[in-house]
Design a protein that fits this description.
The protein is built from 10 helices and no strands. By secondary structure, the protein is mainly α.
Length: 228
Amino acid sequence: MVMPMTSEITGARAERAHATRELILTAAERLFAEHGVFAVSNRQVSEAAGQGNNTAVGYHFGTKADLVRAIARRHSGQIEEIRRRMLAGIGDSTDPRDWIGCLVTPVAEHLATLGSPTWFARFGAQVMTDPALRPIMVEESLTSPSLVRIVEGLHRCLPDLPADVRAERGDMARQLLVHMVAERERALAEGTPTPRSTWHDAATGLIDALAGIWLAPVTPGPDEGKGP
């Protein structure tokens, strides 16, 4: 009888651990998207992932915050790759729509490649509305070199926009992007009608709306233009 080598045993264990982690990530993403992060227990995630051991989530990921971060990173690599490709195509464009497209299209394109149903957009919306978990998503965004470059490029196209208005419209844009993508994902999962037939068309509509926000005129405040 030929006994398996230690390296083979180690490799098999690593493969099993990886497969288990993927099952947990998929189950957690779906449950968090549908019910909210803190409404779902680790036990429920373990059961949905087909794990008899209710401590599987803690064993493989640690805290719930660690699990949320792992789900975000599961998608960020593909989205980052699309962003880099788009950035290479626009160069040093002075058209705000080009930079807005680099914000919107990578997310929509990534979701389109996942098939249906998907849960990542609704997961992101749940996390971004949770005060305890929102910093995780913000932190992950700040580590994206392409995203930092996109924001800088957009701001260069709008040099006359006051800093406070720029910050305000950035918040508006983020809210619209996160929640409109999540709303379309929900509708697709439930089989209800959507305004646009494809993710590509939905991205186009969202780019139009965001361009309207960023390029809208600024109403002067009551004290602006007055002398001392």
